[in-house]
Design brief:
It contains seven helices and twelve strands. By secondary structure, the protein is α/β, with parallel strands linked by helices. Strand 10 and strand 11 form a beta hairpin. Helix 1 packs across helix 6 and helix 4 packs across helix 5. The chain is globular, with a radius of gyration of 19 Å. About 0% of the residues have low confidence. The protein binds nicotinamide-adenine-dinucleotide.
Length: about 260
């Protein structure tokens, strides 16, 4: 079966997701849709010219109708975050793979260990009330809480750096797109190849530690049908409270835009 992804919004994020998919030869076809058709067509041409170096992906521009024949539709047409603007102000409840990846990267750099051997999540809102799950963070099967080289000050600094990275990047170059591009491509591969990967993605929470009816990021199993299994996540008492605070912040923001 042909694998097709339609990306709505051919700006920085949409085009970078497409480029990440092309470089890793993940899908057969990518369609870019943008209100600015000239932009979409130019992105398509530029991307097409990268294909001969790496794989066989077909890339074209199209319309919303293309979503109906796609395994995955990616919506990247929101307004981009401005310098100084909080992510909650932007009310985006997107995949928080980005920040967990940054967190693992910073932990790996601090401990001088391949970040693929570090298992650590940032959960909750993808924004200011997100929180690190130190209780379940491991290097191999060693708890990071017990690691001699990770003081409380290091932990605080590493989490703050991961959380604030997007602000720092936006101050310097107005937008972020490489990490989200790679993160989305990783997520799309898990879907189209039915990888059953454990990933931290935003989804409807229906009763975890007293939290329900809100979309936020928790680890789930991702396969061809999307979220195919929810995990029973072990959180400390303090982390449970942080989850509840994050859920309340998201519900309040959602209520505000419904007014
Ligand atoms: N989750 C993350 O980690 C993360 C990271 C970066 C950006 N983002 C979000 O991704 C979104 C896109 O960011 P960007 O930097 O690519 O912005 P951008 O302005 O470069 O691109 C957005 C594109 O969407 C198009 N568009 C707008 N409305 C449309 C519609 N109804 N149909 C089709 N196309 C439409 C615009 O013409 C524009 O080309 C923003 O909401 C941003 O906040 C999320």
């Amino acid at each position: 079966m042909k694998t097709k992804v339609t990306i709505i919004g051919a700006g920085m994020v949409g085009s970078t997701i497409a480029y990440s998919l092309v470089l890793q030869d993940i899908v057969d076809e990518i369609t870019l849709v943008d209100l600015n058709t000239e932009l979409a067509e130019s992105q398509v041409m530029d991307l097409q010219h990268s294909v001969p170096f790496v794989g066989r992906t077909t890339i074209n521009s199209g319309s919303y109708a293309d979503c109906s024949e796609s395994q995955v539709t990616v919506i990247t047409c929101g307004a981009a975050q401005q310098p100084g603007e909080s992510r909650l102000a932007l009310v985006q409840r997107n995949a928080a793979i980005l920040d967990s990846a940054r967190f693992r990267h910073l932990l790996g750099a601090h401990l001088d260990i391949d970040n693929r051997s570090i298992h650590a999540y940032i959960l909750g809102e993808h924004g200011d009330s997100e929180f690190p799950v130190w209780s379940g963070a491991t290097m191999g099967n060693m708890r990071l809480l017990d690691h001699q080289a990770l003081s409380d000050t290091d932990k605080e600094r590493i989490f703050e750096e991961a959380k604030n990275a997007a602000y720092t990047i936006i101050e310097g170059k107005q937008s972020t797109y490489y990490a989200i591009g790679a993160g989305c491509a990783h997520l799309i591969r898990a879907i189209v190849r039915n990888r059953k990967s454990v990933l931290s993605v935003s989804h409807l929470i229906e009763g975890i530690y007293g939290v329900e009816n809100v979309c936020l990021s928790m680890p789930v199993v991702v396969g061809r049908q999307g979220v195919v299994e929810r995990l029973d996540v072990d959180l400390s008492k303090e982390e449970q409270e942080l989850l509840q605070i994050s859920a309340a912040a998201l519900k309040a923001a959602a209520a505000e835009i419904m007014l």
